[in-house]
Amino acid sequence: MVVSHPTDARPAPPLQVEHWLNTPRPISLQDLRGRVVALHAFQMLCPGCVAHGLPQAARMHEMFPASQLAVIGLHTVFEHHEVMQPRVALEAFIHEYRLAFPIGIDKPDPRGGGVPLTMQSLGLRGTPSLILLDKRGRIRLHHFGRSDDLSVGALIGQLIAEPDPDAAPGCDEDGCRLPDAMTTP
Amino acid sequence: MVVSHPTDARPAPPLQVEHWLNTPRPISLQDLRGRVVALHAFQMLCPGCVAHGLPQAARMHEMFPASQLAVIGLHTVFEHHEVMQPRVALEAFIHEYRLAFPIGIDKPDPRGGGVPLTMQSLGLRGTPSLILLDKRGRIRLHHFGRSDDLSVGALIGQLIAEPDPDAAPGCDEDGCRLPDAMTTP
Amino acid sequence: MVVSHPTDARPAPPLQVEHWLNTPRPISLQDLRGRVVALHAFQMLCPGCVAHGLPQAARMHEMFPASQLAVIGLHTVFEHHEVMQPRVALEAFIHEYRLAFPIGIDKPDPRGGGVPLTMQSLGLRGTPSLILLDKRGRIRLHHFGRSDDLSVGALIGQLIAEPDPDAAPGCDEDGCRLPDAMTTP
Amino acid sequence: MVVSHPTDARPAPPLQVEHWLNTPRPISLQDLRGRVVALHAFQMLCPGCVAHGLPQAARMHEMFPASQLAVIGLHTVFEHHEVMQPRVALEAFIHEYRLAFPIGIDKPDPRGGGVPLTMQSLGLRGTPSLILLDKRGRIRLHHFGRSDDLSVGALIGQLIAEPDPDAAPGCDEDGCRLPDAMTTP
Fold first, then answer.
1. Do A45 and B93 touch (CB under 8 A)?
2. What is the phi/psi pair of residue B182, to 5°?
3. What is the CATH number of the domain that holds B124?
4. Average pLDDT, whole number, for chain A?
5. Position B10 in a domain
6. C146 part of a folded domain
7. How confident is the model at residue B51 (pLDDT cuts 50, 70, 90)?
8. ipTM of the complex as predicted
9. What is the pLDDT of residues B13-22, one digit of tens each?
10. At how many degrees (to 10) do helices B149-161 and C54-63 cross?
11. pLDDT of D172 higher than 60
């Protein structure tokens, strides 16, 4: 697992999504600032995604409060396009596997080539891939293949524990917040 | 598991297959007389098939000599037809999951209704289903859902041990055979 | 797995057991003629026995009718004798792991040396070991290490299907039996 | 899982250990201040400990740097004392299961009663139990039974991310430290 120190972490590029499922409106990473984001890139015919990646995503989605962690699937089809690209195929898959988190269909490259646009801009090596973003939207984990629950859990816990620099001290609908420097546990 | 005694077992109806994959020529149950047959009915978007049924079929195919057990897959699409029915979809699935045994696509019912013809004639309740045929082509196991390796293995072992009534005493390319009554171990 | 053809199989040597647990009276292999026997050799501090061998034995004991398969454990202590040899240790282990089949404690070698007597006479290489005996008491499987459910199930099924030469035609409490030559399914 | 907020967390009572294994010298919680501590209470004849608790402890020990997380086993024998209490029994168990982290034998209650002293002072309900201490030695998780890797990982990650109030700003052998208020990532 490639874990980045905050000072080295680069900001995640914007998602380029053709169509969103399991969400009433499109999602932008910008809107998720202040929360940790787990981005699961998968293909519906990828055995490792079906056996490991997607079940892990589903457990994350059940286990963490949405206010702390946003779980997002990204269908990055780079092979068997004619089978997996139709939206109806992914819809049937999501239905049968009871996936409940928002899933975006990565936008095909208009220049052709088979690798969709977000997959390119994130520099993914294949599926499954797990990307963790911190509260500032920086890429802190970039992992291809099966990832271990204990390690991934620890990194999510650490990212959740990091202060959110954009959460201004003061009061909002959540309550009244102390400046970070005063919240040392 | 519904296991039939030989005296109650009914002959399996013929397979009605639209197209065969992983085999150079169509397979008929008639041709498999003298061998035990494991027929795995599945759908590519059925989670229980992907997690349990197909891996069990693959292990059977690796573990038993083809001369003793014929493993056959049957793609019985009864939902999401538009996604799973195209042959190219099943071909991509077979490729990604590295399935090596012959797989037939069950023939759609020309009268409509969604349940394909072999699935109807076998009276399957859903997928995954495992049907075991004895050497005479009679249905000895008819099971819907996950099936236990130890139990299924025991039934296969028993069926393999049963004498083949059509293997006439005398000599052929395999060698020279005693009458069954003389082969008590 | 070393599977023996009936014509090569040697008879199992008698069990040499110091003490029996989970059975009201001592068990001799002679008394089990006519049934298939699964003999599981284990040690309570052997990780492979605890994780694989004993759970498999317990499933066999639940799954097959006692009239067809006798499941027997054999505690063959060849290391850490001071910890595992006391009967009270094995009793606590059997209680905590809810083992319900008969278990014999292999008799220590009075000449010393650490390897108990039945383990010697069976020529076991270590634990877990699984020995399958046919209805005549001959060793048909002699396996050290983890054994696969599907393979072991198939061999048990085959051994159960073999005719019992000592089951004389005629009537007893089970019913009235045809001669074997007339029972071809 | 009972997770405590820092403000409610009580300090862990001192370990009362009869004998330590896998460590050249006794361990006190006081010495571990500044590190997160995972305390795994187990019994060698407890099936849930052998199947889940101890493998989880071993993975934690492998996965996290010792400078961040201290993994400690506590053998809390409250049943079958005559079998599990002798130190030689635990030594054989540790050897066979290849456990590499420090393990303390909880001190028996001199007044009798069967429940050892640390188990009493920690208020454990049974085995396996997992206790997580933060860098100040306060109990932040108190869990009986199987615990999920993703959840436990997240809590460990959070505890590791919390600032260590005793790590005074300034220089030592690790390097030179900024005051916490200046280390917001």
1. yes
2. -100, 0
3. 3.40.30.10
4. 91
5. no
6. yes
7. very high
8. 0.85
9. 999 999 999 9
10. 60
11. no
Cα(D31)–Cα(D26) distance, integer angstroms: 10
Contact between C96 and D51 using a beta-carbon 8 Å cutoff: no
Distance from CA of D92 to the nearest CA of A (A): 28
The C-alpha torsion from D40 through D41 and D45 to D51, rounded to 10°, is -30
User: Which residues of D fall within a CB distance of 8 Å from C50?
Assistant: 50
For testing contact with chain D, the best of A40, A62, A135, A150 (most D CBs within 10 A): A150
The mean pLDDT of chain D is 91
Predicted TM-score (pTM) above 0.90: no
How many domains does chain D fold into? 1
Q: Residues of chain C whose pLDDT is less than 70? A: 1-2, 168-185
Segment D52-60 long-range contacts (CB within 8 Å, at least 24 positions apart):
D52/D128, D52/D146, D53/D127, D53/D128, D53/D130, D53/D146, D54/D97, D54/D99, D54/D128, D56/A150, D56/D130, D56/D147, D56/D149, D56/D152, D57/D99, D57/D101, D58/D98, D58/D99, D58/D100, D58/D101, D59/A150, D59/D149, D60/A150, D60/D156
Domain enclosing residue D140, as ranges: 17-22+32-183
For residue D9, being part of any structural domain is answered with no
Supply angle C-alpha B59, B81, B124, rounded to 5. 55
Alpha-carbon span A145 to A126, nearest angstrom: 8
pLDDT at D146 over 90: yes
Give the gap in angstroms from C-alpha A87 to the nearest C-alpha of chain B. Answer: 10
For residue A89, what is the nearest residue in chain B, using CA coordinates?
A: B83
Give the pLDDT mean for A23-36: 97
Residue B91 is assigned to a structural domain of this protein: yes
